[in-house]
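Q: I'm building a small set of examples for a reading group on sequence design. Run inverse folding on the following structure and report the sequence directly after it, with nothing in between.
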């Protein structure tokens, strides 16, 4: 009996000391009809505070920059508030940027998706057929991510390496060249203390009469209050 009580006490202690961060849910909103804008949303309950949050990102696919007035970030500092309420506020604020209806009509293709919980996926490499055509009309789209150890921001001292990343579009067609899509030189403050990255997915879109585009969704593992948090960012480019 004494041994059972000791084992139970150890189990309870281990459960009580477990620390977990929050993992945002990500939702693709879509593209503008001409492919010039890509949008997505992330939302969840913040670890530590218990406050609901929702963030919307609108990206110019020509130069991979945020549209003016974005991202839109809402955090409701009330533990009784709901995630739906936070999402509704971001949706209302974004109504003048581009309509959700246009984005919904031009969602494009989820060409590949590896959630953070997918343990068998390669975290830093993904290869997809950019269009749902069999046999394929296109060369495979291969994306590779390389983590970069960068100088620690002042707010991230004593937590270990702070990481940036480089993103490559690897040549798969004869005569093509591997191209650099993105490379960090510093870690933006908006990312927090980034500890690592993994490719979450690839979204492609072939707008009528315009150049096809892609968006790579990247999960950012960052230092959190109760454990590592996960947030998302997107890097866009032309196919």
């Amino acid at each position: 009996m004494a041994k059972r009580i000791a084992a139970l006490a150890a189990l309870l202690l281990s459960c009580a000391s477990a620390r977990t961060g929050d993992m945002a849910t990500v939702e693709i909103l879509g593209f503008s009809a001409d492919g010039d804008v890509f949008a997505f949303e992330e939302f969840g309950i913040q670890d530590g505070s218990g406050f609901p949050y929702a963030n919307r990102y609108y990206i110019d696919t020509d130069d991979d920059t945020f549209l003016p007035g974005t991202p839109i970030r809402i955090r409701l500092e009330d533990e009784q508030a709901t995630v739906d309420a936070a999402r509704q506020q971001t949706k209302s604020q974004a109504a003048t940027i581009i309509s959700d209806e246009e984005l919904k009509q031009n969602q494009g293709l989820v060409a590949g998706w590896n959630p953070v919980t997918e343990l068998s996926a390669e975290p830093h490499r993904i290869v997809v057929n950019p269009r749902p055509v069999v046999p394929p009309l296109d060369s495979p789209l291969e994306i590779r991510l390389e983590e970069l150890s960068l100088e620690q921001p002042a707010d991230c001292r004593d937590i270990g390496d702070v990481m940036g990343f480089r993103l490559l579009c690897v040549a798969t067609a004869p005569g093509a060249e591997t191209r650099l899509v993105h490379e960090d030189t510093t870690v933006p403050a908006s990312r927090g203390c980034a500890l690592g990255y993994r490719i979450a997915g690839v979204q492609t879109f072939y707008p009528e009469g315009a150049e096809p585009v892609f968006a790579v969704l990247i999960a950012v593992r960052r230092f959190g209050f109760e454990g590592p948090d996960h947030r998302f960012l997107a890097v866009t480019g032309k196919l």
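DSSP finds three helices and 13 strands in the chain.
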